[in-house]
Amino acid sequence: MAMRDYAADKETIKNFFVDFCETNDEGQKFFKYAEQLTKVAHREQTEFVVELDDLYETNAELAEAVKQNTRRYTNIVSDLVYEMLPDYKHKEVAAKDALDVYIEHRIMLEARNHRMPGEMRDPRNRYPPELIRRFEVYFKDVSNAKSLAVRDVRAEHIGKLVTVRDKDLELAKHIAYVHQHSSQPPSRLRALPMRLVRRYISLTKRKQPVVPRALADYLVSSYVELRREARNARDVTFTSARNLLAILRLSTALARLRLSDVVEKEDVSEAIRLVEMSKQSLQHVEENVQRGISATDRIFAVVRELAGSSSTVKIADVIERCVDKGFKPDQVTHHSIISLHTSSP
């Protein structure tokens, strides 16, 4: 890959910020990046967002270079925006914080100590650009970009523009906020008092749920089914008696959460589902065969497996088996597959 002329790219991006415009419904032109520059200069916003969809319209090659070397172009655009701000500042900013006062004071002291024009100051005393800037530059990926899960981000993605899934992005933002502020983000939901949570945990520890004899056959058949599927599966997971012990422990834990003295069938089904989901989470290969199969097809596979040579299947059995496979009951009932394949021809 040929080396890029970053000085030329900087000039191209500058012209892009100045000239790019959109037309609204009334036919009027709107210079979106010039408007952002004005708001940043007046301290009305702290985020400067560059949409790659817009840059692709002007220069697709440059947009692709930004995706492949986002860290470098973030610094380039940050320097460029800082240089352009005086041209878009139409009024003085009245509100100043402590950092403004500190910087102005240091500049005044430097001016007193370096009266000779052109005198170079010690590079060690220069202000970091990140401290002087009062904004952050963000690149928004193209609308058709493929999103990744956070766990799929690898070392080769460092420095590049990566789009993560919405849920993963929310989780990452939540974790970053907690580490930065040592508290949970503000929310409309009211958290339970810790005293109440401690009291609830204390009550659950007093419970010792028992597994009734009526669930013995269900537990045995479920474990045998898990063993059979493990033998036919192509993954590296292994199902042993420890899995049965895990199911029993999870079932009793779920019963404790309900403050119940008896383990119910729903507790066992949920425990089996959790075990199945934990096994699936170990399969991090990108070309997982299950990812290309729709939920309807997988539910239909369960129906065919239950039916065998028979032409009818009980809906309750289908729901129960699908729940064991990791589906939720509403997922099973949502698909028309049950009405199509569980009735007699």
Structural features, described:
This protein is mainly alpha-helical. The chain has three domains: 6-116 and 125-145, 2-Layer Sandwich (mini-chromosome maintenance (MCM) complex, chain A, domain 1), CATH 3.30.1640; 194-280, Helicase, Ruva Protein, domain 3, CATH 1.10.8; 293-341. 54% of the residues lie in helices and 4% in strands. It is built from 16 helices and four strands. It has helices spanning 6-19, 32-41, 52-58, 60-68, 70-84, 98-113, 129-132, 166-181, 194-206, 216-232, 241-257, 265-280, 295-307, 315-324, 329-334, 337-341; strands at residues 22-23, 29-30, 47-51, 136-140. A two-stranded antiparallel sheet has the order 1-2. A two-stranded parallel sheet has the order 3-4. The longest helix has 17 residues, at 216-232. Residues 284-292 and 336-345 have low confidence and may be disordered.
